[in-house]
Amino acid sequence: MNVDIAAFGNPMRECIRGTLRCVLAAGALLVMGAGVLLALPAGVASAQDALVLTNRDTRVTGISFRFPKTRTFEDERLLAQMVTRAPGFSDRLRNVLPILSGGVFPFDPVELQRDMARLRRFYTRNGFSEARVDYPASQFNAEKNEIRVVVTIHEGSPTALGDLDIRFDEPLSEEVTEAWEKERKSLDTFAGKRFTDFERLTVENTILSLLQDRGHAFASVETEAEPRSGEYLVDLRVMVHPGPRARIEAIDVEGNESVSDEVVLRELPFGVGDIYSRRRLIEGQQQLFGLNLFRLALADMPEQAADSSVVVRYRLREANIRFLALQGGFSRETGLSLDGEIRHRNFLGGARELTLATDTRTGLFSSPASGRKPVRSVSTNLSLRQPYLGSTHLSGSVAPFYSWLDEPNQDTRFFEFGLRTALVWELLPFRNLSAQHSLSRAVPLENRGFGDRIDVYNRSVFSAGLSLGNLDDYLMPERGWIVRPSASTGGLLGGAVEFLKGQVDALFFLPLSQQFDLLGSVTVGRLSPRGASRNQTDAQNEFRFDAIRFYAGGSNDVRGWGLNALGPQVAVADSVFVNADGRAVADNARFEALGSLVKTSFRSELRSRIPGLGSAWRAGIFLDGGAIPTDVDRTDTGATRFSDERIALFRDRKVPRGSDFRFGSGAGIRYRTPVGMLRLDLAWKLNPSRTDLRDPEDIVLWEAGLLDSLPGEKQIRRLNLHLSIDRAF
To answer: C or N: which end of the chain has fewer Cβ atoms within 10 Å?
Structure first.
């Protein structure tokens, strides 16, 4: 297939061609990776020897599973049942590297026999009562004294749930009966499904939760499974003992030392005299953990007689009141980042938090794309948070702050100091409604590229945000969705920056199978300058809105481009001259991103497990896109000989059009670490702009008349490499 990568025809045609190139490249990388894995010494025997010849020095080189008929569980889940271990990818890699060693994995035939018994019990618990597990196909090489364990599993026919017979030994109240009738229908869906210990526990916990959440603190459930003769069915008999409905007589608090009982009790969503609710008991436990004061918070009922009153107990273990944290991160675009935090968890009592935090992006070891410069910044704030403002769900904070920013890609350099106040209403864990006001003084440090002086100015900004969603894990999600709308306005209480801004971010995580996951995100936003800020061509306003306008591109955005590099940009330099050798030079040539009043972007990624590697590894292919249309006239920058292209690129328009959309595609690898997701992505611009494929120095020199012709496009600039340690997606 021949593809003219220099063509700039129909954008959709370019997108399809580029996608095919990336898919082929990803396939080639996977094939090469498979070849590397096969080339590594896996210890597979070239000849089969008798297993009775193994001894205490025999080493395990691999473990695999064979299924003559059906297969229900993945290797990782089966390996978790075994004690016998084999070297993984990292161990094999260390074995071929100098100095390093991948370790030794001894073979114990007695332990392997126990592993077979563990696997049989595992299958029995999961509904396969006739499963047969053995290892006769294992491969032993007596010369190397190495064995590859091959476990053969005949699952047999699974046992399904037949009749579900649920009985109560005493009548329920009208309120509880109505709730039970609704819940009973959901339990009927288990009939006909494979019957496992998990299904049995689910039935028991569903009944207990319904009763205990409605006052039956001492409820209990007994289950008995009765196999049907000659059928692969099990009938489940359930006897329920509701016990009396109880009210809370007392709340015992144990283990708190510096934190008063009053602070603990105010966080609980119930009080003495309320009907007992297990759900509220656990909710109180979560509220206490949310104070960041306790390492342990257990909610239970001490031993007591089953009665119409109940005593509940919270057993606590306090964390260190003073807390120090240091952490680092890395991104190819911004380099090394360092965060530090000193926190007092109970400042002046009342569970108040006093925090001194700093966040630094150093730019060290960064390697941004050609024509881009690393961003450097420092921010520090001293925050006092009050966790209880009349409600356990409402908290407030006040924080004086200082920040310093050097963003050469926007020709922006200033420091700012001020005060932030915030209110947060927690709807559910990790889902909240927030409102914030920031009053600050900004001081520009240099006047790059402007004829007029950029004055010191004030900012007064109100902002609000809402976080809604349902994720299985809010730190490392694998399933669910989340939507974050936000709005902000400047100038209501004075200040030199007047605007309205709205943005919506939506993410989803969708497992397609045990092997594949689909991830995606969409961002839309609109900025409307107001009053004196409407004139965005004014040097003062242009400088002040650099940090407010929309940008796109980067490892967490459209990955075909570097940080904020997608969209309109102009080539600038500190100076242009001819050196002693007669060569034209543009000092510190770079692209300046103009940003936009409008943003539309999306990211999509198909992620899969990597055969032979652990569950922490993933491979992915992706397609991203975004539109950052030009909304100000920047054709008056002296681009006389480049003006036709500049006019085409920077024409005045307010909303995205089809030609504004830029697409990037590629492939990458991910590794989950305790501190975040390590991500390496290789991306390809499918339909780059005219400036994307040129060096800024060439453009500056040509515009200055120091080059006879504008150098051609460089197709290598379509490539972009991202390396980062941060969020999952």
So the answer is: N
